[in-house]
Amino acid sequence: MERADDISLKRTSSLYSSPPMGPPDQPNYVNAVVMIETPLGSVNLLRRLQDIERDHDRVRTGVRWGPRTLDLDILLFGEESIYTDTLRIPHRGLTERPFVVVPLAEIMPDLILPNGVCVSDLAAQMQDQTLVRLGHD
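The structure assignment produced for this chain is given below.
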């Protein structure tokens, strides 16, 4: 795989296992959240992330929440709000999914989300028994 010289990893959460969203006949997902730094704009970052997914044999079949080898999402991009056909920032599931909120709170506990709520407060409300911390990679 080509190295992502245009993306610098700043923080990484632990890995978490969670049941899949969508069709139940697939294995549990492994989730994490990372903080990056990049000179890329949001649209070019999305394209770069999709290139990385393809490098890892991701095939978009059109099945929503179906099995995939890798799924990279942009949750936040600085203070930007973007609503296009291909990109929505903040990510639409950001405040609803324990497998996003809990690892995000791990790496940025004092982050105030666009809805005005502190991510660590939101994570504390999401004591989801189906989310299992696997450790830190």
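Interim note for the steering committee: The beta strands are 8-12, 14-18, 29-31, 34-37, 82-83, 88-89, 132-136. Residues 5 and 38 are 9 Å apart (CA to CA).
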